[in-house]
């Protein structure tokens, strides 16, 4: 073999090896096809997030697409309508996207995260096939016009840690299977049209730190099982149709910091345990709570917000409230309270609106007593 032919063979082999290497590093053709089908159901005219979705390698340079470096499979699709990234800064505006979520996204077999947040215009239902993606850890569809129901088999996603469907038009009940998500830490379903009750077995989700269900049409009582989620820090159930009493065990949760139950039909008395708990933001306004404000405050009582307004509370404001270590905002207006407002902190920085529309409260900042 002459030297020229040998060089040619070596060169050809190098080219073949290079092409093979490039092919091995490119994304899977089926993943690329699924992404293009997914894109074809969406329209985003202002920012140009899909302008880079060109070429054979969807793992390189495709905006919002992430791949597993070991196998070059698509692992996440992250498209936010509000972002500080350069593509948004150049456009000098937030994004608007219309269309729907194509079931083609379910063909991305190793997808672990999908974020389509704050586009305002994405509509249609969540594809039920999304529950067949075993690697899924993160679903964030907040701030759109998504309708239909939460997929019934959402409990199949055993690795799911975040489920954020807030600010959409989702209806129906919260699927009971949601109680089978052992890794779930963040559940945000606020401001939808959800009906029915909070699943009774939600307390099985021991990793939950946030349960945000405000602004729906949920009914029934607060499940006692919620109080057994020892990591729970934020519980927001406001603006629903929840009835029954407040479980006293909510006040014995070790890390619960926010408890918003305002705008419901909750009745009974306020548990004294809430006054000396870890809760610092407590909003019970706009319910049917009766009885007296618990005389259970002490040095452990620390509230940035304590809102008990618009209920049916009677009797006096308890003297023990002056022993609280801090109360930033207090509102007991629109009740049936009577008697003299205690002197000193926290009342020395509050105005009359915090105490108005009661039966016979008096003292600073209202009028003098005994006239």
Gyration radius over CA: 28 Å
In terms of structural class, how would the helical and strand content be classed?
alpha/beta
Count of alpha/pi helices: 3
> Biggest sheet: strands, sense, closure?
12 strands, mixed
The oligomerization state is single chain
Helix content: 10-25%
Please report the total strand number as a whole number: 21
Second CATH tier, the architecture: Alpha-Beta Horseshoe
State the distance separating the first and last CA atoms. Answer: 120 Å
Proportion of beta-strand residues: 15-25%
Poorly predicted parts: 6-24
Arithmetic mean of pLDDT: 92
User: What general outline do the C-alpha atoms trace?
Assistant: elongated
Adjacency order of strands in the biggest sheet: 2-3-5-7-9-11-13-14-15-16-17-19
Q: How many separate structural domains?
A: 1
Q: SSE string, helix = H, strand = E?
A: HHEEEHEEEEEEEEEEEEEEEEEE
Membrane topology: Single-pass type I membrane protein
Domain Leucine-rich repeat-containing N-terminal plant-type: 29-68
Protein name: Leucine-rich repeat-containing N-terminal plant-type domain-containing protein
Domain Disease resistance R13L4/SHOC-2-like LRR: 128-269
